[in-house]
Each structure stands twice: as structure tokens, then as C-alpha cells.
Amino acid sequence: MDKRMEEPPIIVVGGGLGGVASALALGQQGRAVRLLEQSAEIAPIGYGVQIGPNVLPVLARLGLAEEVRSAAYLPDDLLLLDAYSGQTLFRIPLKGAAFEQRFATPYIAIHRVDLHEILLRACRRLPNIDLNQATTVTGFSQDGNSVQVHAADGRTITGCALIAADGLRSRLRAQLHPADTWRDTGYAAYRTIISRDEAPQSMRNRRGVTMLTADGFHVIYYPLRGGSEINIVGVFQVPGSNDATEAAHHDLVKAVTAHAVPEVHDVVSVLNLTRRWSIADREPVRRWHQGRMTLLGDAAHATLQSLAQGAGMALEDAVTLGDLMAAYPADPARAFAQFERERFLRTTRVVLESRALWTMYHCGGLEAEVRNQQLQERTPEDYYRCLEWLWQPRKEAQ
Ligand SMILES: Cc1cc2nc3c(=O)[nH]c(=O)nc-3n(C[C@H](O)[C@H](O)[C@H](O)COP(=O)(O)OP(=O)(O)OC[C@H]3O[C@@H](n4cnc5c(N)ncnc54)[C@H](O)[C@@H]3O)c2cc1C
Prior knowledge:
By secondary structure, the chain is of the alpha/beta class. It is about 35% helix and about 25% strand. It has a domain at about 5-75 and about 105-180 and about 280-360: FAD/NAD(P)-binding domain. Helix 1 (about 15-25) packs parallel to helix 5. The model has no long low-confidence stretch (mean pLDDT about 95). Flavin-adenine dinucleotide binds near residues 18, 19, 49, 167 and 297.
């Protein structure tokens, strides 16, 4: 037996994309990994996710690029429309020579369940990864040699290192930064997947990622699974309490979209308004790590979805951390300190640029007029240049 298999495992808390990818990256090196997930089943919220060209190389490092690519849909373009006038504000092609010359891998849209299942299947093939469900972690402690993770059922699980991938509302981040909490935007998202056959004609005509935006709301939709399904997200500003009744939310959505173009009404007509998620991010904060423990993914740097990169950043994190744990196998504290140094600025830029885009998408009046003019002046090449820092594969992914 590999001597490292006799060591206490590396504990990963959270079975989202970040946690499962981290477990896999470490498991592939032969490290013993124990993943702890609070849900009865390790399963994602079953909606679509956009994955930028920077992320497929990361999945390639995990040996999964082909499998992911064949489960994915390749959108034609990113299209932003003014929800009141229907004017095109930008169209960024995601196919064709100009895109392919600049970005080596495609932009994809994939069902989260499919992506998660591909990662989980790869984990299950490795006997050194132990996937534990129904285990809610309440905190951790550590000494010089090991880390102890405390579960709600009273168990204490010992590991050689701890990766906290427990999401936006991370309990383990709260232990590290007690004064810090998530930052609610006052917006709530509704998500739906419908089959293409059920979709209004206006939606069936589009083959890319389409977003219609206005002050106080946006709707976004794109095909999944070979184009047979359409993923839809509607995001609305919620005045006052997000706990208002369902009927009140219906009225609100109706009122804010009253003057929008027919395509917005088409999208809203097929949106499931019974369940909503409040939209929040995290203030960037240094010190993701303490000794043998580190934060990762949304727990470290939760972002708004304006750049569609939260999951992408969690996947990049997983591979970077895997490489650093391989470089310093006996010194997790050193690996974790280096991990923060390598990831902090990039992930902070995603958080801050996503906020700026969020404000820009939802402005109104004169600000919206100026925004429209500015966006329309830019060419696809301008947008490619703006996105290069984000979409070009990172050195650690190659
Ligand atoms: C509407 C919307 C659209 C989005 N679209 C995109 C997109 O197109 N592209 C993109 O890249 N990103 C997108 N994101 C962001 C993306 O979903 C997240 O950034 C990503 O899922 C973060 O992954 P994670 O593994 O860090 O956290 P999570 O996916 O939140 O996983 C955390 C896991 O930890 C578990 N957990 C929590 N607490 C505990 C505990 N105490 N004990 C044990 N387990 C625990 C949870 O049950 C969960 O399984 C979107 C987000 C939203 C809200």
C-alpha cells in the first residue's frame, strides 16, 4: 500500500462542483480523501451552467474534457438585448475563426447534473476517495499534526488537512472570519428548465446565450443537452422582504416586466415562479487559510453570476490546489498559503467585475441610454480583448 494511504485523509467539506473536483484532483494523486456533504445525496441544484473557455483545460487536467464536451451544448453567441426596446446591445460570437484564434477551447453550456455526475463517477472509480453524505459539519479544530472536523451528529473526523468547499453561506468561513457574512443584492433568481418543444417560438429561434436586461430585472436563457432543453433564469429586484408570498412575487414580476418587449413576456410565461434563490456574493477577504485548513470555491470568493464564472473559479481552484498539495505533500499549510497567493487576485477580479456588470445591467434612465451607446460602439474584437484575462487558459491548467 502507498504509504500516504495510511495517513489520515484530506477532508473536503461540501459536495458541490468545487468540493467534488478537489476530491478528484487529490484522489488522482493517490491521496486518501474523505468528502463530507450535508445533503442526503451528493447532487447539485439541477439547472444549467455556462462554462467559459478557461475551464475546459481544467477539466482536461482531470481527464474529463471529452466527456464534458460531449454532454455540453456549444452556444453560438452571447447576446445582450435591452428588455424595453429589444435593441441589441452586444453580440459576441462564440464560434468562428476570430473566436477560435483567440481562445483555444469552446464556451459551453451544460446541465449541472451532467457535469456533477461526470466528476462524481470519476471519484467513485478511485478507492481512495470516500464520499460521505448526510454529514453536516459544524466546525473544526487543529493541532500541529492534524485537523479535527466536528459533525452535527457528534462525530469528530480527523484528517491531515481540511478543504472547506461549503459554499456561499460557509460555516467554516464563519469560524475563520466571524464578523464577515454574505452580501445580499436584494435580487432573487427563479430557475426553470423546459423542453425545447414547450418553448415559445421566440425562444426556439435563438441558439446562443440570450439575455434581456432592464432596471430591476433581467432574464437569461440558453439551450442545453443538444438543444433539446432550454435553461431559463429570471432575476428580479425584490423590494422589502424576500419572504413575501408567492402571489406577491407573481404580481411583482408582472409589474416590473409590464413594459418589456414580447420576448420577455414569452420567457416569463414559462418561468417557474414557485421557488426562488436570493442572490448574494461575498466581500473579498484575504486569509482564506489557517494552518491545515483552507477555504475554496464560493466559500472563499462567492461572486454574482454576471460573468458566469463562479463554478469555473471553483474548478480552477481545485486543480491549482491539487498541484500545490502535490508540490508540498507533507506541508498543507505551505500549499494553502501559496494557493491563496495564486488565486486571490484573479478571483477578486471576478467578484468585483461581476458586481460592476450587475450594476451596469440593471441601471435605468439616462444611465441606461449611455450604457447602450457604449456597448453598441464596441466590436466583438473589443469584447474578446476585455475577456482575455478571464477566458485564456491559466498556466496551471496546461
Ligand atoms: C442563478 C445562478 C446562476 C449561476 N450560473 C453560473 C454559470 O453559468 N457559470 C458559473 O460558472 N457559475 C454560475 N453560478 C455560480 C455557481 O453556481 C457557484 O459559484 C458554484 O456552484 C460554487 O461551487 P462550490 O462547490 O464552491 O459551492 P456549492 O455549489 O454551493 O456547494 C457547496 C456544498 O457544500 C454543502 N455544504 C454546505 N454547508 C455544509 C456543511 N456545514 N456541512 C457539509 N456540507 C455542507 C452544500 O450542501 C453544497 O453541496 C451561478 C449561480 C447562481 C445562483
